[in-house]
Amino acid sequence: MSVRSLTQAEAEGRSSLLTVERYDVAVDLTDLPTGSRVRCESRITFDCVRPGAETFVDCVAEVDRAVLNGVALPAAVEGRIALAGLGERNVLTVVTVPDCSTDEQGVHKAVDPADGEVYAYTDFSPDHARYAWACFDQPDLKAPYAFTVTAPPGWLVLTNSGDPRIEDLGSARRWTFPPTPPLATYNTAINAGPYYELRRSGAGHDLGLFARQSLAPILDRDADELFTLTTQGLEFFADRFGMPFPQHKYDQVFTPEFPGAMEHFGCVTWMDWFLRRTTPTRAEWDLFSRYLLHELAHMWFGNIVTMRWWDDLWLNEAFAEFASNWAAVSATSYTDAWVAHAADDKLRAYFVDQGPTTHPIRQLVRDVSEAEATFDAITYPKGASVLQQLMTYVGEAEFSAGLTSYFAKHAWGNTTLQDLIDAVAESSGRDLDQWRAGWLETAGTDRLTLDRDGDGFVLVAKGPGGQPRPQVLAVGAYRGQGDRLERAALVEVAVAGERTRIDLPAGADLYLVNDEDLTFASTRPDAATRNAFFGNAARLPTPISRSVAITTAWDMLINGEASAAQAVQCLTGVLAVETSASVIEPYLDLAVEAAELWSPESEQDVLMRAVAAACRSLSGVGAYRKAALRGFARTAADLEQVGWLQGEAGEDVDLQWRALVRKAQLGGPTATEAQALLDRDPDPEAWVSRLQVRAATPDPAEKKAVWQTLVTERAVPLASVYSVAAPFWTVGQDDLLRPYAEAYLELVPTIHRGGALPAKTFTRHLFPQFGIDLTFVGRAEALAAKAVPVVRASLLERADRVSRMLRSRG
Questions:
Q1: CA distances for 197 relative to 216, 220, 253, 394, angstroms
Q2: Closest CA to 349 of 322, 319, 384, 373
Q3: Residue 701 C-beta-side C-alpha neighbours within 13 Å
Q4: Which of 156, 256, 260 is nearest to 208 (CA)?
Q5: What are the distances in angstroms from CA 101 to CA 51, 518, 586?
Q6: In terms of C-beta distances under 8 Å and separation of at least 24 residues, what long-range contacts does 398-406 make, across chains too?
Q7: Distance between alpha carbon 15 and the CA centroid of its chain, in Å?
Q8: For residue 144, what are the CA distances in angstroms to 12, 181, 304, 440, 605?
Q9: Residue 703: pLDDT above 70?
Q10: Residue range 321-328: average pLDDT?
Q11: What is the DSSP letter of 498?
Q12: In this structure, what are the phi and psi dihedrals at residue 508, rounded to the nearest 5 degrees?
């Protein structure tokens, strides 16, 4: 079926016509243990303000029966069933039979390779509920949902509301759930299967954790931390938003093959890749804590209050991203959350915001297909950083008061950007119109540079269109004390024009623009201290000041203003003194990337050895050991060093796999060792680790087989695509890789099959990084013009990054 994407104009027209009273949805999953069909009956009760009018209901799934007010309806056309002659009050019943065995969205069946157990989930963002059952699939037609689910007798069933009535039917069980509060279609969910369950009380709520049976020991290992983080988040957000989470039950389900994480009201669904098979590093826990708090924040931003249309997606995502860092720093042990944010997500946002796919945080979204392309680094980390700047700009207490007012006024409804701006403006007493226009409705990154003006200093600020945005930031002056730098002054600056005088002490060894990382801007050191800047970064006294220095150095690298060698010098120097375990792994990743992907061939070996030396040194520090050995697995220079790593890895199966990947890249024999490791690895996805080794092997037959599994069959779990694609594109294997560069271009027109997240994942991670030139990049950019929006954005972003890498290498 050809499927039309809902336009904003159509959504507004339908919203002005209809009020949805409720959905009663019955779902039969009993065929799934052996088959792939699901039977759904959607009963929608709704009112129409103009009796006699016509509209449509969204439905892409195969329709068995459709009846409106007792009258049979015609078949769906382009994913829509026409509804004519509406009454003042209407009842629509549609029976659908979606298939879980295809690439279509909506309902998915997963089989655990460890034990053959079957699990099912729904995934409806942004408008994929229509692939399961009939609905008005747009965010501003919210309504309560009452689910009835029939499932095999050994299964648990989870939806948005808890405390179901369960009936034994002999060969099945029926789960009848109480109605939810008014929700958008994409916020509803059903998860079902023979799950392993843990429950605990926290913050006055009944908290649940679920995982497939084969991962029960992993869930047991992590449960204390997960329950603690959830409790801390619930308490923090209830206080800052002036509204406790309104449902007693809050479940989190770790599901095989789920594509990411989704904030379903009261029933968050995670890909179970987040349950790390080996004990997580501090950086992995830091990242997961922010993800967990992000999804929890969505209970308010997105679920209780929902954007009216996708042009305000940032009201969901940017706020959840910001709030997760705010909560982590304020209420959990992960107090370096903003530092970790700067070391990873914010760097991605700086890159994208200075490239061809930049866009305003709030932008025109004509239809839902365009909305799929906006789930990106602008909407998420840039949006979060901008909200941090807003809180700095108006004050934390005033900001929190504005949020309290916002939720009190708009709970269970839909809002636009202006509703939130009005609430914060009123609580702070500040006119935020200029702030809104500059930060939310203007694309691009400000550039802040420190300049000398006689005996003093001037902050030179330029916005994307000339005038800088209104913002508050700090500039630090640092003087040497032995081998360290000490801050001699921290000056707050309110930027209101292109040149702002700053009272800084003269003669400092380093001046740090955007000290404390309070704004979102591309910064540069002053000319006098520029050359020493890369070495002096390691002498800075705090994790946040060092992260700002690294951000500056990396931004200079991607813009051709610094060399890969200078970036590696900055990163390895900081790694030698870093005190925050949360950023060791991100910094090592950056150092490897700079040495391997951005350096000229003549310098690559030296820089890789420098990073390897840093990793080996850090491996002696207990808290950093695992992250350091992982970095060494990517930089070991020869088989002797790989042998050392294998000895250090001991019983750590994950590190042993990483060592074998490096051994394969270096041309060493791996088949016997890989088979032995596969035989003793308890991970249900251990075969993917074996595939990584094969991907790295410089052998034509292995490359062909891996491409077949990864790309043609798409058999690799989505979360692991990068881990297979990265060693596939190994440096020095150019002759082997050239045919696959061409195969990638041939893939582009159909790469979007399976939905937005697979489209992004495959477009980005399969893009060649070696064996190509700028001509190839130009061909990829030409293909982007004909691609669907989500592929176009991802392809242009990757093309831009690789073209910058090629120029840096040259």
A1: 8, 10, 9, 44
A2: 384
A3: 0
A4: 156
A5: 41, 48, 37
A6: 398/424, 398/427, 398/428, 398/429, 399/424, 399/427, 399/428, 400/240, 400/241, 401/427, 402/426, 402/427, 402/428, 403/240, 403/241, 403/242, 404/240, 404/241, 404/242, 404/243, 405/242, 406/305
A7: 30
A8: 20, 5, 12, 32, 61
A9: yes
A10: 98
A11: S
A12: -70, 155
Look at the chain and count its residues: 810
The 3-state DSSP composition of the chain as helix, strand, coil percent (nearest 5) reads 45, 20, 30
As a whole-number percent, the residues of the chain with pLDDT over 70 amount to 100
Query: For residue 145, which of 97, 192, 183, 107 has the smallest C-alpha distance?
Result: 183
pLDDT, position 757: 87
Alpha helices in 729-810 (DSSP H): 734-747, 756-765, 774-784, 789-809
What is the chain's mean pLDDT, rounded?
A: 96
Please give the sequence-ordered ranges of beta strands (E in DSSP) within 223-326, or none if there are none: 249-255, 261-262, 267-271, 306-307
Q: Kindly tell me if the per-residue pLDDT of 101 is higher than 80.
A: no
Banded model confidence at residue 739, pLDDT cuts 50, 70, 90: very high
Cβ burial 268-283 (10 Å sphere, 16+ → b, else e): bbbbbbbbebeebbbb
Q: Is the peptide bond before 126 cis (omega within 30 degrees of 0)?
A: yes
Cα distance from N-terminal residue to C-terminal residue, the chain: 48
Specify the residue for token string 């082997």: 736
491 pairs with which residues across the strands? 475
For residues 650-675, give the mean pLDDT.
Answer: 97
Identify the sign of the CA torsion 526, 527, 529, 532. positive
**What's the confidence (pLDDT) of residue 455?**
82
Banded pLDDT at 756 (limits 50, 70, 90): confident
Least reliable range by pLDDT among 144-153, 289-298, 723-732, 751-760: 751-760
- Inter-residue contact 543 to 341 (CB < 8 Å): no
Question: How far, CA to CA in Å, does 248 sit from each of 166, 266, 302, 748, 775?
Answer: 19, 9, 19, 46, 58
Confidence band of 73 (pLDDT split at 50, 70, 90): very high
- Tokens, residue 644: 């050392």
Instruction: Output the CA torsion sign for 728, 732, 738, 744.
Output: positive
Beta strands in 195-332 (DSSP E): 196-202, 205-211, 249-255, 261-262, 267-271, 306-307
What is the number of other CB atoms lying within 10 angstroms of the CB of residue 220? 13
Q: Answer for the pair 719, 748: CB distance below 8 angstroms, yes or no.
A: no
Tell me which residues are annotated as active site. Answer: 295
For tokens 């009663």, what's the residue? 24
CA 228 to chain centre: 22
Q: Which two tokens stand for residue 656?
A: 């042993």
DSSP state of 52: T
DSSP secondary structure, 643-671, as one string: HHHHHHHTT-HHHHHHHHHHHHHTT---H
Per the CB < 8 A criterion, the answer to whether 510 and 453 are in contact is: no
> What Cα–Cα distance (Å) separates residue 34 from each residue in 110, 111, 118, 174?
12, 10, 9, 19
Beta strand ranges found along 29-154 (DSSP E): 39-48, 55-58, 63-68, 71-72, 80-83, 89-96, 106-111, 118-123, 145-151
Binned at pLDDT 50, 70 and 90, residue 496 comes out as confident
pLDDT at 102 over 80: no
Residue 460: exposure state from Cβ atoms within 10 A (0-12, 13-18, ≥19) = middle
Given a cut of 70, is residue 52 above it in pLDDT? yes
Q: Reduced to 3 states, what is the DSSP secondary structure of residue 727?
A: helix
DSSP string, 364-396: ---BHHHHHTTSSTIIIIIHHHHHHHHHHHH-H
pLDDT at site 453: 85
* Single-letter residue type at 631: G
User: Per residue in 454-478, pLDDT tens?
Assistant: 888 999 999 998 999 999 999 999 9
CA 417 to chain centre: 22
Residue 306 has what pLDDT?
98
